[in-house]
Amino acid sequence: xxxxxxxxxxxxxxxxxxxxxxxxxxxxxxxxxxxxxxxxxxxxxxxxxxxxxxxxxxxxxxxxxxxxxxxxxxxxxxxxxxxxxxxxxxxxxxxxxxxxxxxxxxxxxxxxxxxxxxxxxxxxxxxxxxxxxxxxxxxxxxxxxxxxxxxxxxxxxxxxxxxxxxxxxxxxxxxxxxxxxxxxxxxxxxxxxxxxxxxxxxxxxxxxxxxxxxxxxxxxxxxxxxxxxxxxxxxxxxxxxxxxxxxxxxxxxxxxxxxxxxxxxxxxxxxxxxxxxxxxxxxxxxxxxxxxxxxxxxxxxxxxxxxxxxxxxxxxxxxxxxxxxxxxxxxxxxxxxxxxxxxxxxxxxxxxxxxxxxxxxxxxxxxxxxxxxxxxxxxxxxxxxxxxxxxxxxxxxxxxxxxxxxxxxxxxxxxxxxxxxxxxxxxxxxxxxxxxxxxxxxxxxxxxxxxxxxxxxxxxxxxxxxxxxxxxxxxxxxxxxxxxxxxxxxxxxxxxxxxxxxxxxxxxxxxxxxxxxxxxxxxxxxxxxxxxxxxxxxxxxxxxxxxxxxxxxxxxxxxxxxxxxxxxxxxxxxxxxxxxxxxxxxxxxxxxxxxxxxxxxxxxxxxxxxxxxxxxxxxxxxxxxxxxxxxxxxxxxxxxxxxxxxxxxxxxxxx
Length: 655
Ligand code: ATP
Ligand code: MG
Hints:
By secondary structure, the chain is an alpha/beta fold.
């Protein structure tokens, strides 16, 4: 798209209120209607982009809904699709992964080096007795050996389950036990914010409570002192004698590629199971549509591989497409709040895919930091994880993208495998509206419905639901088919998938994600999504971050409580005057119905380690509850302490 065109489009969003024409592009329209008319044929066409050992017999088996099976009878291997098929091409010596350490050290792996490492580790795991279907827990820091371990598991048909390396022994052993893992792959230590994280020690604490574990593979990363018990082997020792080629296991399309536990924003994490054929087909197609990957792209996805975004968009999608992927070890603001911009400049990233929470952190420090870096290599910006406040979107668009880069606001979940709602730069860009995910992807039948599952009228809020199965969908929750059905399929009838999110579809057909449906505030008979209200706070120049919750109120039903983080230059103004100003601001932007009952200025908000605000924590604080529920997905013990501190301070403040 030329610059001129894009600016023309970008002006359209400013007039979006006045627009009453269909904005969906012709090409996109055509693909969507093809998918709607014959979904099986549509997805089968996409599946042809992968390498299969054996073609499928049936595209979709829906004989036992909601246990849908994709590409039944098809046989393939994920590591072959990510590596082998590039090895015989010109890509052999192309860089697959650029790794950037927290201390600015860099390493890179070509496709052929990655292939070599994966094959060796795959053989080493086989030598330890790991066979097809066995589960392997991977508890590694963000180092290249983490994707290597995932792909080695995939090569031999073992099911990987990656556990975020900031988690405690308890969280680790819960996941190891739930998945009954035979092997745990870890490191002696890792680094976070300049500090050593003693991963092996955490594993030592967890293993006595995890009887299924036969071996612990230890990567030497930090060279800290550790104890090697009889179950432990060094990574470098086991690969030494391993043969350089491991024949890929032929796995059925429905063979589980991995189990991944959700972020736990709303409660106890769920063990989401993804298939091989359906998941990879969905990822391959949607990554092309959304990001328009070309072989020249240098893709910087800032997620941790401990979360689904890292699985799908650091490992499987970019590698299947033969792109170059940047993988960053550390925190966005360590040692200074400039790390992403520094990495974009250093490695010439063409696409940046990050989270609203990281952007809000950077925005808090103003424009001068990003302005001091050369960001002109960027051609596309992406966001994921939470609704992006329009104010933050504009900052991303102007300050980072210099009004030259379209933004793809991608809505999806661990359960969906890949992006479900987004604009599609690889099909055709449609006018953007800051804060809206735009449309569902071709083949995704997303709809906003009321309590009874009936589609709502335009501009009417409701629940986001998906009416048709899609290849990237989870197969079940590990060992819990009942919970799988309960959580996703029983809210509405006729096998409609319940996302748990609150949304609206505007008169142009654009979808707006409004937050979790169980976080909805019911104020004097009105239902307000948390995202609407939080974005209204963030649109005030003093506010960087906002989290709203409510407490019971005799008159209104519920009264709004806001927890706000100020932009750095406003910190000294956190008084009653600013509170009054904010109350007027909300009255003006949302209406007097949303007048906050109480406003608290805080230094930070409690978040999951994937960066999402845990509103349920704030809710228990403000409703005076003495327990704060499951906090296992908050980072390490120290962060739990920090959150407790925030909790206590807030509790005292709320009174
Ligand atoms: P849990 O299911 O354990 O509570 P979680 O839902 O936070 O955790 P994820 O699967 O990582 O775990 O997150 C998916 C959720 O993130 C979505 O349901 C949605 O609420 C939110 N989300 C993701 N992307 C976007 C986006 N672009 N806009 C709005 N919300 C988003
Ligand atoms: Mg969820």
